[in-house]
Every structure is written in C-alpha cells, then in structure tokens.
Amino acid sequence: MIIAIDGPAASGKGTLARRLAVRYGLRHLDTGMLYRAVARAVIDAGADVADPAARLAAARALDAAQLRDAASLREPGMGEAASIVAADPAVRAEILAFQRDFANRPPGAVLDGRDIGSVVCPNADAKIFVTAAPEARAERRWRELAGNGAEISYEQVLDDIRRRDARDTSRAVAPLRPADDAHLLDTTDLDIEAAFRAAVDLISGS
After folding, report:
1. Which strand ranges, in their side-by-side order, compose the sheet holding 2-6?
2. Which residues are within 8 A (CB) of 130 and not within 5 positions of it... i.e. 6 or more apart?
3. I need a labelling partner for 141 at 20 to 30 A (CA). Which of 11, 47, 135, 188 fits?
4. How does DSSP classify residue 176?
5. How far, in Å, are 22, 40, 58, 81 from residue 169 at the CA level?
6. What residues contact 110, with CB distance under 8 A and at least 6 apart?
7. Radius of gyration for the chain, computed over Cα atoms and rounded to the nearest angstrom
8. Does residue 54 have a pLDDT over 70?
9. What is the DSSP string of 46-63?
10. Does residue 185 have a pLDDT over 90?
11. What are φ and ψ of residue 110, in 5° steps?
C-alpha cells in the first residue's frame, strides 16, 4: 500500500503522514528531508547551493544516514536552501530512484512531499493534497521554530513561505500541484486530530 501526501510548507502534511504510517503499519519518508540533506551536504562542503555541480555531487552521494540528524536539517534557512536545490532537474532525477525504491518495498509506505502523487508515485493507492492559508502555515512554522529556540519573526517566516511557494509552484520540473486524482484537504481551520480523521476518511473512500 502506498499513500502519497503532498502540499506546501507547513501545511501539516508531515505530521499527518507520520500519523497515517502508524495507523496503517507502513514506513514513512519525508521526502523534503532528502533535499534538505543535499543542501546541508553542499553547505558543509563549503560550496554554494546555487552551484549546479555541487548540488549534483551531493545528490549522487546521498545516503540514508544523512537523514538522521533531523535537528540540523530543520535549522532556520535550510528550508529555503532545500527549495533551491529541489528546483534543479538533475538533483530531482537523482532523488527520484531513492524515493521509488523506498515506496515499493513491502509492505508499502507513506511518502510526503510536493510531487509524490503527480510524479514519484503516480499509481499510489491514495493521494491527498494538504493545503492551508499562507498565514496559518507561517504561524505554525514560526511557533515550531520559536519553540526550538530560533530567533526569527513571524514576518520572516511568512516571507520565506511565500518565496518557497512561488519557487515550488513555478519550477519547470515536478512543480507543486495536486495530482489530478488527489483528494484536497484544507487544514487552515483544523487541528491535527481533525485533519487526521479527515485524511483517514478520504483514504477509506479511495
């Protein structure tokens, strides 16, 4: 069983995907962490994420062990860097095989990202596109960052989310968009429990 969860930054798709993986006894992959890991590798190597050669080299060397340092991959600025990396078609091609291999290993998986239902797993058993108003998403991400001790304003987070939305929806390869057969789930006014119940209902009806 493969469940594809897509949506923009801070829409709640990651939390939802983890809950669904537990519910259905499946493995979970936050595919955004793959691009964060590539971005982190580029930065740690002293290179610039705007350098195509550095991005590609880091993507080719990607190892699952790099995903374990979640705190480092979620530091302020890493989302922006990952968005730049993810817009590179060559990087996406390298990461695609990793994602599909993960999804197709028994008993299946829940993958969350931006192009899972449309590109990575077009034949997924269930597809949900999670969305929310930018202001609501910025509030969630700001509270998360502030709770982890980051010194960043709500306005900065909102600007970052709007930039990432613009980049993700306009990139030439695998832009952020709902798959034609995806269920839409707006979480603007939903807490995680309500969103989880709605997602289970949508999957049950798939």
Report:
1. 27-30, 109-113, 2-6, 126-131, 183-186
2. 5, 6, 7, 11, 12, 13, 16, 185, 187, 195
3. 47
4. S
5. 30, 23, 24, 16
6. 2, 3, 5, 17, 18, 20, 21, 24, 26, 27, 28, 29
7. 16
8. yes
9. T--TT-HHHHHHHHHT--
10. yes
11. -110, 120
Residue the block writes with tokens 């197709």: 104
Q: Rounding to the nearest 10 degrees, give the CA dihedral for residues 43, 87, 72, 21.
A: -150
Evaluate if residue 153 carries a pLDDT over 80: yes
Q: Which residues contact 87 (CB under 8 A, 6 or more apart)?
A: 167, 168, 171, 173
Angle at 61 between CA 57 and CA 66, to 5 degrees: 125
Tell me which residue of 94, 103, 76, 60 sits closest to 174, measured CA to CA.
94
- Residues 102, 108, 113, 118, CA torsion sign: positive
Phi-psi label, residue 125: left if phi above 0, alpha if psi -120 to 50, beta otherwise? alpha
Record the pTM: 0.88
Report yes or no: 194 and 15 within 8 Å, Cβ to Cβ: no
The C-alpha atoms of residue 144 and residue 10 are separated, in whole angstroms, by 10
Alpha-carbon distance of 15 to 196, in angstroms, equals: 9
- Percent of the chain whose pLDDT exceeds 90: 79
CB atoms near residue 91 (< 10 Å): 25
